[in-house]
Amino acid sequence: MKQSVFLTILLIPTLLASFAQGKIGLFEKNTDVGNPKLTGSSVYNAAKKEYTLRGSGYNIWFERDEFQYLFKHINGDFTVTADFELVGAGRDPHRKVGWMVRESLDDNASHLSAVVHGDGLTVLQWRVAKGDKMRDPEDEIFSKEKQAHTVQIERKGNNYTMRVAAKGAPLQEVGSHVMSNLTDQVMVGLYICSHNPDVIEEAKVRNVRIVQAKK
Questions:
Q1: What tens digit of pLDDT does each residue of 128-143 get?
Q2: What HEC string does the chain produce?
Q3: pTM of this prediction?
Q4: CA distance 166 to 15
């Protein structure tokens, strides 16, 4: 009996590790959406409370997307906030990082994303319905803040609001958009896209906060 109890105690850490496998920090899993040429990755450093995203992809635009996605499923209203830092000079000024709310992992899925580009351009953008082409500027709201450090998306019903802030500054609202086609349960997460299929770009994401509304 004692030997059985001892073996069970020894197995507990292994069992816990197997249950946690696949979870990355606050998120369920990561994947490359759209089958980009180069494989991306998402890693969480628990000691630093820091996520490192590395990804490729031609773009998140037109009627299909390619990017690295670190996500979880959320039901109902929520507010997600994080600090973003693209690493290095980058190969393309349109490399991008931010938050994305998505209906599925299909490369042409409807989505809404809060985007920080390598050149500082910061924007709320969306694909209205699956397979639709994203349009410029009809499917965008541009931020006055060109060097956003903190980015937030808040969902209330079908309304999504983006807020941003420079480092150390208070959040300022960029704008809101209604996505009536997105269901109560959506995929919410961090993403990176290099805007160049032959290049991997990297970003550090810190102070990640996910607040879900109480039901």
A1: 999 999 999 999 999 9
A2: CHHHHHHHHHHHHHHHHHHHCCCECCECEEEEECCCCCCCEEEEECCCCEEEEEECCCCEECCEECEEEEEEEEECCEEEEEEEEECCCCCCCCCEEEEEEECCCCCCCCEEEEEEECCCCEEEEEECCCCCCCCCCCCEEECCCCCCCEEEEEEECCEEEEEEECCCCCCEEEEEEECCCCCCEEEEEEEEECCCCCCCEEEEEEEEEEEECCC
A3: 0.90
A4: 43
